[in-house]
């Protein structure tokens, strides 16, 4: 199974267009959106190419391949534009390996405030815009960073689960973080 992860698009049409191109080129079966999809939020600047309506229209073309959770900047008004559910604060995926993956945005649950996890489980979240793929205290922490607002001087990034490897990459293919699950 191959999964593609994006978080914190914040309504940027150019970032979303590039994310979709990378998703399609990756061969991943599903696009996992970890929140803050359409709205830029009051603490962020207005992103380049801010156009939530067109971002929604583009994402809706892939709605049957999207699994999404709500970010702290997402609202019921955003849901009205999207053809896929995105208002859940979290979702669980059961991977082929039998491991569980907890999907969330990161403002309620994150690497420091975790749900009940078994040894080897994965928590995937965004919110910080900082890429991470590492084992911490018997759980895997995964954050794909952000294609719109990267932080800490890091480049724009997205994530992939390919087999038993979680990777965070730049659009140019540079590996920023990687771990085996």
TrEMBL record:
All copies of domain Calcineurin-like phosphoesterase, residue ranges: 1-162
Record carries keyword Metal-binding: yes
Top-level taxon: Bacteria
EC number: 3.1.4.-
Cofactor names: a divalent metal cation
SUPFAM superfamilies per the UniProt record, alphabetical: Metallo-dependent phosphatases
Keywords: Metal-binding
Residues in the signal sequence: none
Similarity-based family: Belongs to the metallophosphoesterase superfamily. YfcE family.
Protein name from the UniProt record: Phosphoesterase
